[in-house]
Specification:
seven-stranded mixed sheet; alpha/beta; binds S-adenosylmethionine; Rossmann fold; two-stranded antiparallel sheet
Length: 206
Amino acid sequence: MKSRGRHWDELFSAKEESQLGWYERDPARTLEMLGRVPGWEGSTVMIPGAGTSVLVDELLARGCRLILNDVSREALDRLRARLGERAGEAVWLCCDISRPLPEDLPPVDLWIDRAVLHFLCEEVEIARYFENVRHLLRPGGHALFAEFSTRGATQCAGLPIHRYGVEELDRRLGKGFRRIDQFDHTYINPRGEPREYLYALYRRER
Ligand SMILES: C[S@@+](CC[C@H](N)C(=O)[O-])C[C@H]1O[C@@H](n2cnc3c(N)ncnc32)[C@H](O)[C@@H]1O
């Protein structure tokens, strides 16, 4: 069976960035949600599946310190090439986010996931993902999830999807987290097809 990393490497190699099924020219909805986090600019941010997202450029422009993870080396190489000199400002990781992260990472103020968590379908992988969130996100920090909603597609990028409602995110994060905002968003992919997303923002209380 093909590894997860290889699957994503092949997808990133096969197309122009703007033709990828999740490509966003403007990460406005994420930035809008971040507007709900007081003083977020300049934060330390974990991006568990960065891909080649332009959100990275926006966060660097706002003085954020980034941990950029992805299971795909191809995606990370493309992102690094695009960032040029600014690439040196980030910490780079090529880990499967459903496995324990390296121990020596600094605690982060923000965890921003767009369209990564929903690819984890095994219970043990989902549980480990949320252990990583709890391990890395400092008390008082915020986690933002943008995942296919319960009205969304059941497949993407040739993979099955575990779709989310806020009730499940609430439950998986547990008592230490408070949901502070949420909205539904219909993303139109490069083929002109609608994809239903749930955006949900949480604060870690303790
Ligand atoms: C649909 S893309 C979204 C990329 C980016 N977040 C964005 O909004 O453009 C999913 C990304 O998650 C990465 N990915 C998928 N499964 C992963 C895993 N288990 N661990 C880390 N990264 C993963 C893929 O390589 C890909 O870059």
